[in-house]
Amino acid sequence: MYNNLLSREMYNYLSWHVSEIEKERDMLLNEHYAEETKESINFQEFFKNYLDRINSYLNTVRVDKNGSEACPFVIINSIVEVFDCEEEEKCKYRIVLPFSKEYDTSIDCASCLSPLGRALLFKNVNDNVSVQIPTGMLHYTILDITLPDEKMPMLSDSTA
Known about the structure:
Transcription elongation factor GreA, DNA binding, elongation factor, single chain, Chitinase A, domain 3
């Protein structure tokens, strides 16, 4: 039984995203985590869990022309608009890979490995999120999840 209905475009995007994150993970592992340390093991475990979760989700969806074109949850590279419950203001964060050199100066970035990035990953619109940071607790409500205007290679229908 399918719990989710996605458009072909969103299904293809998420499939492409998995392959891109696998490549990025391997490059980061070679550049920054070459030694077998606790940090490198945690890094590998994080990405294994991240990729497994998206792949599991993709195995539960049905692709349909009437399926959702919205990103179903926060992923790496997505832009998350949140309402800060304490400050009573909206702000945006782009969830990025660690050591990322690509960023938009108009949007704050949060590494997927940071407390904020980890707390936002896989959350949905309208979810409430609390994040413990060194200076205290942050409380957000997710307002919107968008994807950057990256150019994804066209994937054939055989990817589903």
